[in-house]
Amino acid sequence: MAHPVYMTREFYGLPAPPGTALPTPAELLELCTKRHPRGWNVGLAYPPEAPIFWIKYPHVIWNELVAQNMAHEGLKRLQSPVRAPAVYYACEMEFGRSIDSFAVMEFVPGKIAAERLQDAEDSKSKDATYSLIALALPELHRIPVPPGSRPAAVNGGRIRHICFDMQEAPHHYRTVAQLEDLLNQFLVMARREDRIKDLTREPLVFCYSDIWLGNFIIDDSRITIIDFSEASILPSSFSKHAVAWRESQIRCNISHLVVIPTTNGVDNTSALREATSAMAMRSG
């Protein structure tokens, strides 16, 4: 016997394109039956014959929805050459012992950066792909941060960043100074020599830390950033650290190409690297 289905929460994002109809929750359940053998998220282009929407399921992190729409709107207002897909709708449903979530967003044509690099015939073509990624990341830093923002995920939840175990901070932080104090306490306990210093002097930026080759879609010479689950409002050293830390993921050092706002005489990248390494060892 089929289990009853309960809607546990919904997200209403940006308006869908005129003349289109979003799939209903019932249609999402009927459409999204394919599962990854390792339990990872799956994507579905819909409708299949002429896609308008991209449906992501079954594990949507709610911060992604808010952060991606902030990026979509912010980049659009800046008239940036870089894009982020609009998110139109999301929901979470419980049936039996399972809870699945679904996000309906804008379909973006093109190839992910990993495919572009695989198809590249020479180093010049590869360099062009990495240059587009290096162009895209600083564009996010141009998005204005609301006045009075505290260090947090874009949706106001706990910080989501690769610096932390499971990409999520263990606490909420009221201020940047409190974040600095608690990170330094951890560095002391981990017996690391580096310390965070003058974090409050750094500019707060829209920090995107899930930097890997599957999160950039390239269509001709236009690049779109996807998957904003690990996006937060943070001091700029967190962005510098994310770019450097993900070098092995993207198989190229682009740190020298990515322009990140800084404060003269302040750079906490090394201390954040030490904190990330210590957290990884502790969780392992």
Automatic annotation (TrEMBL):
Transmembrane segments: none annotated. SUPFAM superfamilies: Protein kinase-like (PK-like). InterPro entries: AGP_Transferase, Aminoglycoside_PTrfase, Kinase-like_dom_sf. It holds the Pfam family APH. The lineage of its organism: Eukaryota, Fungi, Dikarya, Ascomycota, Pezizomycotina. Residues 80-233 form the Aminoglycoside phosphotransferase domain. This is Aminoglycoside phosphotransferase domain-containing protein. It comes from the Eukaryota.
